[in-house]
């Protein structure tokens, strides 16, 4: 079948994305409190070359320059996150007006250029004071503190911001924080707490959604999930069951809560037998169901697909293999859960230097699955390529990124033809930024930032070839790829 060249839907939001800790810097300015990440990065060897977000790419001071570049690009939406500790330095209590004013100024600057602001309430940085006070996400108190923080932002910015995201990649920050010790709070294999933490996050999400619908009735709200659609290794039934196990444990465990307000039966039954189901209060199910009924879209952060194969209960691989954080291709180890699944490499796909599969078709697959299972509009809240970029004579020739983005945009257009309702496509990221565990070497941006791991570089911005390519895509509404 020959796919006709099509435009994306009218008013489609071509965008870019960022996160507060990865771009802002100014980590102790204007009354901001410390976050869990401000503390975690000071533990030696937790990040590449012990990099921090103290300065990051200085977006806090350069946001006007960056948004002017976004306007030159023709951007329709800018997705950014708010640092909770900039609003409530202690996580609760007194509001920091300077922090609120910064984000209102950021929103106003976007609107000045006709760029739709898309606000993420939580992109992994909790106020450190709440961790100290009661253990942060491990304690039920966090639900009401998060809801109060969310209401504060809804009331201040709700007249100006239409699109809101409650949480970014809940599956990632909880897995890396309580199972792999790679993110704060740095706990290893704390399975009981992992599932309890996730329930607290789910309740915080639900209460925020319900409050939002009262305060911003005409707005749109959802959550952004790091979705890796899965393929069975082959048609051997035990590998097909491994795929189903993976989906239930790693995707639907979160997405079903957002869209249906309930946990998938297989996973709950499995956890119940192991004594790992989270404790729930009497009205939790009612609140979750009510919030799910009001969800406006499903956010998808898509980077790669995954393969699933049978994993023996005895002698199988575990979930704790080495992760590639240095960009040395081939250093990622196969992981899995004994008795359920393992995730071998896909022999049909190329990978990045960080061993992430490059699979544009997986984005189409992801959209189709969300559409069929949840019947919700979709926000592609992140998609992009991390690579080693080279600045030569003020230019960055990143044709490999253009190839990557072109194929993914084409897959998105195919998904639209398939009947998927897609609101936006946000490239990760607009500028280069701090890549959490990977430092500044792993560059995602359409705009190059002159900085390395040590502080002191110029921070000058340089438009990459991909910037000019994306500008043409936006101006043609996806016709010219």
Automatic annotation (TrEMBL):
One cellular component GO annotation, for this chain's record? cytosol
Coiled-coil spans in chain: none
Kindly give the InterPro entries that the UniProt entry links to this protein. Answer: GH, GH_1_N_CS, Glyco_hydro_1, Glyco_hydro_1_AS
GO BP: carbohydrate catabolic process
Listed A to Z, the keywords are: Glycosidase, Hydrolase
Membership in a protein family: Belongs to the glycosyl hydrolase 1 family.
The UniProt GO MF terms for this protein read: beta-glucosidase activity
| Organism the protein comes from | Propionispira arboris
Name of the protein described by the UniProt record: 6-phospho-beta-glucosidase
Q: Where is the active site?
A: 382 (nucleophile)
What's the domain of life for this entry?
Bacteria
Q: Does the keyword Hydrolase apply?
A: yes
> What PROSITE patterns has UniProt attached to this entry?
GLYCOSYL_HYDROL_F1_1, GLYCOSYL_HYDROL_F1_2
Reply yes or no: does the keyword Hydrolase apply. Answer: yes
């Amino acid at each position: 079948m020959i796919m006709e060249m099509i435009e994306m839907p009218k008013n489609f939001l071509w965008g870019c994305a960022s996160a507060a800790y990865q771009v802002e810097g100014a980590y102790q300015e204007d009354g901001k409190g410390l976050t869990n990440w401000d503390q975690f990065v000071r533990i030696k060897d937790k990040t590449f070359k012990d990099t921090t977000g103290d300065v990051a790419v200085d977006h806090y001071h350069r946001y006007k320059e960056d948004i002017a570049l976004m306007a030159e690009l023709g951007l329709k939406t800018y997705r950014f996150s708010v640092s909770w500790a900039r609003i409530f330095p202690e996580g609760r209590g007194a509001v920091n007006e300077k922090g609120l004013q910064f984000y209102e100024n950021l929103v106003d600057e976007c609107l000045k250029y006709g760029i739709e602001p898309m606000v993420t309430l939580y992109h992994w940085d909790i106020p450190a004071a709440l961790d100290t006070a009661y253990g942060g996400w491990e304690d039920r108190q966090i639900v009401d503190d998060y809801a109060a923080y969310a209401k504060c932002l809804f009331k201040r910015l709700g007249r100006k911001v239409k699109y809101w995201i409650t949480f970014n990649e809940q599956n990632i920050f909880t897995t890396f924080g309580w199972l792999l010790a790679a993110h704060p709070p740095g706990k290893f294999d704390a399975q009981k707490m992992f599932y309890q933490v996730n329930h607290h996050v789910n309740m915080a999400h639900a209460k925020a959604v319900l409050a939002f619908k009262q305060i911003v009735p005409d707005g749109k709200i959802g959550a952004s999930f790091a979705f890796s659609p899965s393929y069975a290794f082959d048609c051997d039934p035990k590998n097909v069951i491994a795929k189903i196990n993976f989906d239930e444990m790693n995707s639907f465990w979160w997405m079903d809560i957002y869209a249906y307000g309930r946990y998938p039966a297989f996973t709950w039954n499995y956890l119940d037998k192991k004594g790992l189901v989270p404790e729930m209060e009497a009205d939790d199910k009612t609140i979750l169901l009510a919030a799910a009924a009001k969800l406006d879209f499903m956010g998808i952060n898509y980077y790669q697909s995954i393969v699933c194969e049978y994993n023996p209960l005895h002698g199988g691989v575990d979930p704790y293999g080495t992760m590639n954080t240095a960009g040395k291709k081939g250093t990622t180890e196969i992981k899995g859960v004994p008795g359920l699944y393992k995730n071998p490499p896909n022999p049909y796909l190329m990978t990045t230097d960080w061993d992430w599969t490059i699979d544009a078709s997986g984005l189409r697959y992801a959209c189709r699955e969300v559409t069929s299972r949840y019947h919700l509009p979709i926000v592609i809240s992140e998609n992009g390529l991390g690579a080693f970029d080279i600045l030569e004579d003020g230019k960055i020739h990143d044709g490999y990124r253009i190839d990557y983005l072109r194929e993914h945009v084409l897959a998105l257009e195919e998904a639209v033809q398939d009947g998927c309702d897609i609101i936006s496509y946000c490239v990760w990221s607009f500028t280069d930024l701090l890549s959490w565990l990977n430092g500044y070497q792993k560059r995602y941006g359409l705009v190059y930032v002159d900085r390395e791991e040590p502080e002191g570089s110029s921070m000058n911005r340089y438009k990459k070839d991909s910037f000019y390519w994306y500008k043409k895509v936006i101006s043609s509404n996806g016709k010219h790829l």
